């Protein structure tokens, strides 16, 4: 039986990955500061900080495969934590894995390492060029992985596009809340930017397949069925059937307003949101299909619909405190006033 450690295993994707690993017959251990309410009783929890050497050494003891999902997300808005958790914590974990005889590490990175790409599709050979603090931190964590590979550790890096799936909330919880109540939603500019997502179940399958592949690799993961941002949101509005429509706002002034509102603490935006919402970014995933035999199951439209349906079914519990940013709806702040205005906009 494969013994697997999932760091960040109480967060949104970490918890889902734990479920996939258990179904695949793994014996699973979680390293996290918090415990998840839905952690299965046969999953061991080591409660602690990925930056603490003694805790990490205990977590990797006897482990065959490490799935590293610990991350401070952009919404945390803490530059020190972005660096110390995403970079220093990853480096410490890699050293402990090497010293502890771990056979394989699968490190979950981010498409934020590419910033606004000069051209699409993004390939595994595309040189990263992050444009904000989170992307820089995730890229530095990748460098730590490559350094570990040079010292003999088998590490694969998985870069997901923006993740959707049942239970995925954060900023998406605000989008779903607006649509559920019939408020119009917006794109920046005409919404013609091509934007690719990945379903959390598809991402978990990539991570599992990567863990079974000997030798380091870099895998970019996203759906193979996607269109523009406007098309994705219009499809979701049709699915919800609440009367919500997609409206356009001028890209540059709106991005500046998002930045100002975030700076004043009035809205839950991070730099990646106002930088990327009007930009195109998609991966060519042929390498993942050929090397791993992976095929994404969900299109953009299907994953938006499934995630929205989960939100509607669980709406009363989506404001929970004390869970990861992606497992609860972000607080709307001044966006609540905008929501009410958008509900009253003439057609």
Key features of this structure:
single chain, 347 residues, alpha/beta, Rossmann fold, 2 domains, seven-stranded parallel β-sheet, two-stranded parallel sheet, 12 helices, 11 strands, 41% helix, 14% strand, globular
SSE string, helices as H and strands as E: EHEEHEHEHEEHEEHEHEHHHHH
Helix content: 40-55%
Q: Give the CATH topology of the largest domain.
A: Rossmann fold
Strand arrangement, largest sheet?
3-2-1-4-5-6-10
Main beta sheet: strand number and arrangement? 7 strands, parallel
The CATH level-2 architecture of the largest domain is identified as: 3-Layer(aba) Sandwich
* DSSP helical segment count: 12
Arithmetic mean pLDDT: 94
Task: Assess the beta-strand content as a share of residues.
Answer: 5-15%
Rounded radius of gyration (Å): 20 Å
What shape does the CA trace take?
Answer: globular
Low-confidence stretches: none
How many individual domains?
2
Question: What do these coordinates show?
Answer:
With 347 residues, the chain is of the alpha/beta class. It has 2 domains: 3-163 and 196-221, NAD(P)-binding Rossmann-like Domain (Rossmann fold); 168-195 and 227-280 and 304-343, no CATH class. Helices cover 41% and strands 14% of the residues. It is built from 12 helices and 11 strands. The protein has helices at residues 12-23, 53-60, 79-99, 133-150, 171-180, 200-211, 229-240, 251-263, 271-276, 286-292, 300-313, 335-343; strands at 3-7, 27-32, 44-47, 65-68, 104-108, 155-160, 162-164, 185-188, 197-199, 218-221, 246-249. It has a 7-stranded parallel beta sheet with strand order 3-2-1-4-5-6-10, sandwiched between helices. Helix 1 (12-23) links the parallel strand 1 (3-7) and strand 2 (27-32). Helix 3 runs parallel beside helix 4 (133-150) and helix 7 (229-240) crosses helix 11 (300-313). The chain is globular. The protein starts with a strand and ends with a helix. The model has no long low-confidence stretch (mean pLDDT 94).
